[in-house]
């Protein structure tokens, strides 16, 4: 197992974990700021075909799990924001009704 390859995988894993943590905190801007860095690492890992090597199978599984977890955390944030937008819209409609009747 090459140290350089392992470092690339570890860096990507750490970024995904950080993105998950940030997404759960609702800090989507920070999640986005890490996307480019993660993308560059994924490109490098893909170019080197690291995850095709049998000795890195456990990393592949771990990275897939983290990616799914990140998608779930982002979906949860999206649902929360959609709910907040609906409450704002409803509040705005209520204010308009009061304004029209005053």
Which short descriptors sum up this protein?
102 residues, mainly alpha, rod-shaped
Please provide a written account of the structure.
- The structure is a single chain.
- This protein is an all-alpha fold and 102 residues long.
- It has one domain (3-101).
- It has helices at residues 3-24, 28-33, 35-48, 57-101.
- It is rod-shaped and about 75 Å long.
- The relative contact order is 0.13.
Furnish the topology, listing elements before pairings.
Blueprint: H1 3-24, H2 28-33, H3 35-48, H4 57-101
Helix pairs in contact: 1-3, 1-4
The proportion of strand residues reads under 5%
End-to-end separation: 75 Å
The string of secondary-structure elements, in order, is HHHH
User: Which radius of gyration do the C-alpha atoms yield?
Assistant: 20 Å
- Shape label: rod-shaped
Assign the structural class, choosing from mainly alpha, mainly beta, alpha/beta, alpha+beta, or little secondary structure.
Answer: mainly alpha
Summary of the model, kept short:
The protein is built from four helices and no strands.
């Amino acid at each position: 197992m090459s140290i350089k390859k392992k470092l690339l995988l570890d860096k990507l894993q750490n970024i995904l974990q950080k993105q998950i943590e940030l997404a759960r905190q609702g800090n989507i801007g920070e999640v986005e700021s890490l996307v480019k860095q993660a993308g560059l690492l994924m490109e490098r890992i893909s170019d080197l075909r690291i995850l095709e090597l049998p000795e890195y199978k456990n990393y592949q599984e771990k990275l897939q799990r983290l990616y799914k977890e990140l998608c779930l955390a982002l979906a949860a944030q999206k649902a929360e924001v959609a709910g907040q937008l609906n409450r704002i819209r409803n509040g705005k409609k209520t204010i308009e009704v009061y304004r029209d009747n005053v």
